[in-house]
Every structure is written in C-alpha cells, then in structure tokens.
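User: Let's play a game. I give you a shape written as tokens, and you guess the letters that built it. Ready? Here's round one.
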C-alpha cells in the first residue's frame, strides 16, 4: 500500500513539474484530464509545425501541387518522434477507471488493431477499454459544441 501511494505521489509530482499542474489543487481525474488535454495540444501543435515546415521548404512547383491535406515526405528526428509518442500516450493510453460500464461492439479487425496499439505502445495497466474511453472522451470534448449545434438543427 505504501509503495502504491509513493508511486502515485511520484506521478503527481512528475505531472506538476512537467505541466505546472498542482496535484494538491486538483483531483486525480482532473489531473489526468489536463494531462490528456495537454498531450492532445502538443500533438496538434507538432502537426501544425510539421505542415508549416513542409510548406516553407517546398519548391515553387511543389507548393502549387500541395493541398492542405496532402502528405509530404520529410525527415523527422528521433527526438521529435519520441515526443509525439509521449504526447499520444498521455492523451490516449492512460489507464482509466471505468464505473457503470456498458458493452460496446467493434469489428474484429478494429478490435485487433486497437489491442495491438495498446500492447505495443501502452504502459502497464493500459487496456483497450481505457484506450477507447479516452478516444471517445477527447472526441466529445473537441466536437462537443459542434455536436450540440448540429443536434439543434
């Protein structure tokens, strides 16, 4: 029990130092939500920077051919890849306590792909249910206002 408490305190301290979140001021759930939100923000900022970098370094002929959604081959440093992986883990692969659970069905292929991601990238305690819970929560947070507007149409 003491070891678990120490681990939780170390995690809270790490979160506080890394993101300026005070564990004493927020609950574990709020801390995790803030942690995920910052991870998503980091991912979005990094994608934006990569896109801007690719556009800046494109030749005039290439820039005429590129659209906003086009993929551009470019070198990404190992450090950048690792930072992106950490942001992804923080956003989606954080173990989540599920209460009042409900069954949701996925196709076999989708479930196997999600399971593969969790097993390869997730840390101890990560599971497919938490992964899906985090995906849906972030999606609903991101599109919540739009969904509410569309519902009223």
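Assistant: Ready! My guess for every position:
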């Amino acid at each position: 029990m003491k070891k678990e408490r120490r681990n939780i305190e170390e995690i809270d301290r790490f979160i506080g130092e890394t993101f300026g979140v005070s564990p004493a001021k927020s609950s574990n759930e709020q801390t995790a939500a803030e942690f995920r939100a910052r991870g998503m923000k980091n991912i979005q900022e990094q994608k934006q920077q990569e896109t801007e970098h690719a556009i800046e370094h494109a030749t005039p002929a290439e820039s005429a051919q590129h659209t906003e959604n086009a993929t551009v081959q470019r070198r990404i440093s190992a450090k950048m890849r690792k930072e992106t992986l950490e942001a992804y883990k923080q956003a989606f692969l954080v173990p989540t306590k599920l209460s009042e659970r409900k069954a949701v069905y996925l196709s076999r292929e989708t479930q196997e792909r999600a399971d593969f991601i969790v097993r390869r990238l997730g840390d101890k305690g990560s599971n497919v249910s938490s992964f899906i819970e985090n995906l849906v929560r972030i999606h609903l947070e991101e599109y919540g206002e739009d969904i509410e507007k569309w519902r009223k149409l």
